[in-house]
Write a structure and sequence with these properties.
With 162 residues, the protein is mainly beta. The protein has 2 domains: 1-73, no CATH class; 78-161, no CATH class. Helices cover 9% and strands 25% of the residues. It is built from 2 helices and 5 strands. The chain has helices at residues 20-28, 92-97, and strands spanning 8-9, 12-13, 78-89, 102-116, 153-161. Strand 1 (8-9) and strand 2 (12-13) form a beta hairpin.
């Protein structure tokens, strides 16, 4: 099982979107310090409570960044008001004077208001899709909140019926 990228249990298997290390990681994950050329390591004992970890080049390793961790989880709950339209229809006695059946003026706002817990991060909580490190065809194309945001649209209009 060590060195394998998949894990099989009776009746279960892993596939795109699930990692064997996430299931069995507590049992055989080997964390260790990487010693840099100058003798220092990636662990800084005086700064264990830093929010962001020290940058390290672990590109050749398959174990880094694959251990379950809730350190950087975001509350992606949101409320988005998709459409608000405010309109006013002129009274019939006014429209009949100018040979109109009906005249309506309106203002419409789409995707103008989103209430979330993202504290100004440039993420769109509605842009959430599947991502997998095993499927490179969609790499970086649809990660949570990354992508084209919902456009804000304002429209002013008049509806006239003759």
């Amino acid at each position: 099982m060590l060195g394998s990228s998949s894990m099989t249990l009776p009746g279960f298997n892993t596939s795109d979107g699930a990692m064997a290390q996430a299931i069995a990681g507590d049992f055989w994950y080997d964390s260790y310090d990487i010693t840099n050329a100058d003798g220092s390591t990636t662990t800084i004992p005086a700064n264990y409570d830093a929010f962001y970890p020290r940058a390290a080049n672990c590109a050749g390793s398959s174990i880094f960044n694959m251990v379950p961790n809730d350190r950087y989880m975001l509350n992606m709950a949101y409320l988005r008001i998709k459409n608000i339209t405010l309109g006013y229809t002129l009274p019939r006695h006014l429209t009949q004077r100018i040979n109109m059946e009906k005249a309506r003026f309106y203002v419409s706002l789409e995707n103008f208001f989103t209430f979330d817990h993202l504290k100004g991060l440039p993420l769109d909580p509605e842009e959430i899709a599947g991502y997998s490190s095993f499927n490179t065809s969609n790499y970086n194309s649809s990660r949570a909140g990354v992508g084209s945001p919902a456009f804000k649209t304002a429209a002013i209009g008049v509806q006239v019926t003759f």
